[in-house]
């Protein structure tokens, strides 16, 4: 929270999302602690990311903890397609963002039907959530393959992390991506 508060003006000014991964223990703390929950809610640029391995994720809207988090925060499903959950939480509109698992993307990319399967998957995911991000873009070849698809974000080794002092570097698009 200290980092988020310290750099809140930068995130807000540049309309950049700070995505925080939430495991079961942290989810319990957030849902049980009204002060902490309200503190996080005030920082509108913070989104919460829940991995496919989150307990009872496949229960979707029947998972009271997921619903409580959804009621207060913008949620991401991280690692969608890793094989740990069914589609119920997506169909139940629990998540605003879905991040496709990197291993699934790599498998689809290597397959002969990449240009058929991926657009169909994206079209169907976009029916139930507003945004889809593809993880695993570790080469310009992957970037080029997705450049004209209906994804709202890409993640991978093409965009290395930066120290807090270099946050502005995240706003610059490398020339190879124009």
Automatic annotation (TrEMBL):
InterPro entries, per the entry: EAL_dom (IPR001633), EAL_sf (IPR035919)
Gene3D superfamilies to which the protein is assigned, alphabetical: EAL domain
Domain EAL: 41-158
Superkingdom of the source species: Bacteria
Protein name in UniProt: Cyclic di-GMP regulator CdgR
Source species: Ewingella americana
Gene, per the UniProt record: cdgR
